[in-house]
Amino acid sequence: MLSLNDRALAIVQTMIADAEALQLAMKRLDNGTTVVDAGVHIPGSLEAGRLFAEACLGGMGKVHFCELNFGEFSLPGVDVTVNQPALACMAAQYAGWAVKVEDPSSHKNFMAMGSGPAGLIPGRAPISEFGLSRPGRGCGIGTGEPQTSIGTGGRVGG
After folding, report:
1. Total-model pTM
2. Residue 128 — pLDDT band, cuts 50, 70, 90?
């Protein structure tokens, strides 16, 4: 059965394997979560951003760099192609679930609005509309819009 988290995980594993060239930083938390910083506290790169976008599509799309022409001037841009838009753009990116973790030992807390395929694990995304079954425990790939310090993180769904 199709797993958007497994597809996204393959992309994230590629990013981790090439972390130095992509200018990424990783942190392994006590609870087993791996946090990949692709440009918050380190420079990141265009290629890291491209791969990040493909992971956010649940591995169901491709992102390519392009040039956008506007008459006398042009700007860099991206071209996104997906085979199954409902899966890549709705199921894989269903957003609006809060990720909150308190770390009493370091007094560093983390809060973000989550999105990404990890939302399928705890049942926040309406997956029945997309013909997907509810995944069990396991890997969840998510992204967050931090509202507090990224001192710690949390595993979504257990």
Report:
1. 0.76
2. low
